[in-house]
């Protein structure tokens, strides 16, 4: 396995084709294909679904890409760790979905500003679909969003940051209830259907043939959790495993297998990643890894 092969895999994911990836990494298209085949042979998996016209990552491909992004980010951070490069400065107009602000992002931003005090982050909250339009128009430099589903503006690229799962949450004391029993007994608090995460929830509800009695539509997971805590209904929200384990309410895996979503850092293809966005992505991945290990920077 070589770093160049990992960068090639990353380029294909970002640019959506072997040909454009070849231009980005400075190789021929046949050389790009050979590098992907070498990775597949090394890990004994298929990285792409070749039955489709455009390269679509398989589940194994997504796993390899996530680890490749982490390896490359750590490798690229070596010069800064050695003090060879200048401090990261500049201003980033960043959007973020509510669920990210509810979870990993605040600690990641705190670590980033501590490591790079001259960096300035102008942060706004929003839903993924709206922020994708703001990136396309130039109103945002980047956004932390759900991986796009359905229609979205052209020429957007994204870097995977972490995965979380969807959980059906209910009032405390309902641990023995099944998903069907919960949505039958309680009103349903719907995650804003304009959000891509909300569309994922609606699609799975239809697949499971669960008819819900809608009472509220909200886009803040923090507020949704509080409503559920007060016994006002049940809901489906994205949470990390650690959040689900620590909340004082019932949390049941949503879907079989449990539905997951990928949170990404989205940018526009015409505006190359800055050192600040790369540092932000690295900080978020590190914070995600720390939470899995049960540590944070304040504890280290």
From TrEMBL:
<dbReference type="GO" id="GO:0003677">
    <property type="term" value="F:DNA binding"/>
</dbReference>
<keyword id="KW-0804">Transcription</keyword>
<comment type="similarity">
    <text>Belongs to the LysR transcriptional regulatory family.</text>
</comment>
<feature type="domain" description="HTH lysR-type">
    <location>
        <begin position="1"/>
        <end position="58"/>
    </location>
</feature>
<dbReference type="InterPro" id="IPR050950">
    <property type="entry name" value="HTH-type_LysR_regulators"/>
</dbReference>
<dbReference type="InterPro" id="IPR005119">
    <property type="entry name" value="LysR_subst-bd"/>
</dbReference>
<protein>
    <submittedName>
        <fullName>LysR family transcriptional regulator</fullName>
    </submittedName>
</protein>
<dbReference type="InterPro" id="IPR000847">
    <property type="entry name" value="LysR_HTH_N"/>
</dbReference>
<dbReference type="Pfam" id="PF00126">
    <property type="entry name" value="HTH_1"/>
</dbReference>
<dbReference type="GO" id="GO:0005829">
    <property type="term" value="C:cytosol"/>
</dbReference>
<dbReference type="InterPro" id="IPR036388">
    <property type="entry name" value="WH-like_DNA-bd_sf"/>
</dbReference>
<dbReference type="Pfam" id="PF03466">
    <property type="entry name" value="LysR_substrate"/>
</dbReference>
<keyword id="KW-0238">DNA-binding</keyword>
<dbReference type="GO" id="GO:0003700">
    <property type="term" value="F:DNA-binding transcription factor activity"/>
</dbReference>
<dbReference type="InterPro" id="IPR036390">
    <property type="entry name" value="WH_DNA-bd_sf"/>
</dbReference>
<keyword id="KW-0805">Transcription regulation</keyword>
């Amino acid at each position: 396995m070589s770093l160049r092969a990992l960068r090639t895999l990353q380029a294909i994911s970002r640019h959506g084709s072997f040909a454009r990836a070849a231009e980005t990494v400075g190789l021929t298209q046949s050389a790009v294909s050979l590098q992907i085949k070498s990775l597949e042979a090394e890990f004994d998996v298929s990285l792409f679904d070749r039955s489709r016209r455009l390269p679509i990552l398989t589940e194994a491909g997504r796993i390899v890409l996530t680890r490749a992004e982490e390896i490359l980010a750590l490798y690229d951070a070596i010069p800064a760790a050695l003090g060879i490069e200048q401090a990261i400065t500049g201003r980033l107009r960043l959007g973020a979905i509510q669920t990210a602000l509810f979870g990993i992002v605040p600690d990641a931003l705190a670590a980033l500003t501590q490591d790079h005090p001259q960096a300035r982050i102008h942060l706004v909250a929003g839903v993924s679909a709206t922020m994708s339009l703001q990136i396309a128009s130039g109103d945002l430099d980047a956004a932390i969003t759900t991986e796009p589903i359905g229609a979205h503006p052209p020429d957007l690229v994204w870097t995977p940051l972490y995965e979380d799962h969807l959980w059906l949450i209910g009032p405390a004391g309902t641990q023995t209830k099944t998903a069907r029993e919960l949505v039958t007994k309680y009103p349903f608090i719907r995650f804003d259907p304009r959000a891509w995460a909300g569309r994922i929830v609606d699609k799975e509800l239809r697949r499971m043939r669960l008819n819900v009695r809608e009472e509220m539509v909200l886009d803040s997971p923090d507020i949704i959790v509080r409503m559920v805590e007060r016994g006002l209904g049940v809901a489906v929200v994205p949470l990390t495993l650690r959040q689900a384990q620590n909340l004082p309410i019932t949390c049941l895996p949503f879907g079989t297998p449990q539905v997951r979503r990928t949170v990404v850092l989205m940018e526009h293809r015409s505006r190359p990643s800055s050192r600040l966005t790369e540092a932000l992505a690295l900080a978020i991945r590190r914070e995600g890894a720390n939470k899995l290990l049960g540590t944070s920077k304040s504890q280290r």
